[in-house]
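Hey all, sorry for the wall of text incoming. These are the two entities for the joint prediction.
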Amino acid sequence: MEIKHRLAKNYTMRALRSARMGLAAMIVATPSIAAQISIQVTEPGGVAVAEAVVYASVISGTALAKPKREVSIEQVNKEFIPLISVMQTGTSVNFPNRDKVRHHVYSFSPAKTFEIKLYSGVPGKPIVFDKPGEVVLGCNIHDGMIAYVLVVDTPIFAKTDKRGAAVLDGLSAGEYEIHVWYPGMPASALPAPRKLKLSATDAPAITFAFNAKTQNPAGPKPSQGK
Amino acid sequence: MTSINTRIAAFALCATTNCTPIFADTLYERLGAEKGVAEFVSQTIDLTATDPLTKRSFDKVDLKKLKLKIAEHICALTDGPCKYTGDSMKMVHQGLEISESEFFSMVEILRGTLNRSTVPESAKNELLRILAPMKRDIVSK
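and here's what came out:
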């Protein structure tokens, strides 16, 4: 209920913001000079893959600088929310514990090894994800809790929605390499990165088709049996 | 202190009768040492994590790790060769809002498990006496 409520609030905020931005656009009438890439991610059978990570690394041209945001990975009802995150190298991550019980968040992943010992509330300091790569998060107390973070060396990234669609926008003219990633998907089943040359107003659409079905990434951790 | 008194009593008894002195045995050894403790801890946790009266607090908890830590804790508290590396009882139970009746339900499960085991009556009672004061750090409701 709490999550639903928060989502609803988010949508309202977003709607308000985009309405305001729409109004601003009409007044200023800024011409659109940025390219964008529409991406569809599917698995065998043409089924849409939600929550897949897509990102573009710049081969030539200038990446539009985006401010590094501070992001949160919450613990709610003994689950990490969101389950899958993508962020730029150098992003600070907060781990607010919304549960009454304590959690003990850790990662053994080489890209970021850390632990926040038994805590309630919001830990004092965020964790800076300072190297690119995959990070798997767990809780030392609750073995079912798991979350995935992909840290990328680019500010251009997105996650697919329920229909398996994502848009990388705000791109300047240049050459890009587009990647797709999903937790637990073996490298052999991941489609190869796609190179694209874009002029300032291009808006191509591409599809990434996985060679294998995705497994529920929230499933039990393979390394820890009962 | 209790275990020292027991040892003196056992020694005195053995000095007057023909028996094998047992005063070298720690409570840990009388509880069955590593294997014995691991067994009754495992059974107690399995039952507590499934009993309708107590399972609430064990939802999604890594039981395998929990059992190892409890066995280690008991080993350290009963003069066994371990050092407890876990967190304080107060710390780990905070936020669980455990009631007195939940606490005593778990004590009953432990008592029942020990009764079904080969742990001698005296060792069982000593262990329960050692664990009893933890109530004030566990119960918060």
